[in-house]
Amino acid sequence: MSQNIFLIGFMGAGKSTVARELRDQYGMRLIEMDEQIEAQEGRSISQIFAESGEAYFRALETRLLLSLEQESNTVVSCGGGVPMRGENVAAMRLSGKIIYLCASAETIYERVKDFHTRPLLEGNMNVEYIRSLLAQRTPKYQSAADITVAADGNDVRAVCEEILQKVQTAAKIG
């Protein structure tokens, strides 16, 4: 695939799982934004938030996205907050298609409830809080997305096939 695929959506929507499957089944290069930022910074996302603040972390995300402009055949698993910034959406559009993986608050809760690596959910690990955050972010996800794919209850391979089919169809139309 000549263009990149940027997977966006709320934490726990399945971005990392789908990204790994795209890498494994279709030979795409994989970039996990949070892992890349942790490696560059030499500290965890939680540490970055605690020590340098969310604004600093968001600037690191933007810088990473801008560095991908010349890449191709790469799937990027974006952090959940990436599409909240217009400059991030613009950077993703420069080199690829933006795929919104949508999932319900209940699905997300089931996927993240046992992990303590989500700074925005620490102390608020419940469906109601997730639902409220999701309600705030969903309009941004929807407006950023070129393509939306349901990630609730769907087999990861089926999700990947749907993504690739829709990306190829969009490329033929565009």
Question: How does this structure look, described?
Answer:
The protein has 174 residues and is α/β, with parallel strands linked by helices. 56% of the residues lie in helices and 14% in strands. It contains eight helices and five strands. The protein has helices spanning 15-26, 33-41, 45-52, 54-67, 86-95, 105-112, 127-144, 156-173, and strands at residues 4-8, 29-32, 74-77, 96-102, 147-150. A five-stranded parallel β-sheet has the order 2-3-1-4-5, with helices on both faces. Helix 4 (54-67) runs parallel beside helix 5 (86-95). The radius of gyration is 15 Å and the shape is globular.
List keywords for this structure.
174 residues, alpha/beta, five-stranded parallel β-sheet, 56% helix
SSE layout and pairing:
Elements: E1 4-8, H1 15-26, E2 29-32, H2 33-41, H3 45-52, H4 54-67, E3 74-77, H5 86-95, E4 96-102, H6 105-112, H7 127-144, E5 147-150, H8 156-173
Helix pairs in contact: 1-8, 3-4, 4-5, 6-7
Rg from alpha-carbon coordinates: 15 Å
> What is the number of beta strands?
5
Unreliable stretches, pLDDT < 50, 5 or more residues?
none
Described by the principal axes of the CA atoms, the overall outline is globular
- Tell me the helix content: 55-70%
Widest sheet: strand ordering: 2-3-1-4-5
Q: Give the terminus-to-terminus CA distance.
A: 15 Å
Largest sheet: 5 strands, parallel
Helix and strand content put the structural class at: alpha/beta
Order of helices and strands: EHEHHHEHEHHEH
Task: Report strand %.
Answer: 5-15%
Oligomer: single chain
Mean pLDDT value: 88
Contiguous helical run count: 8
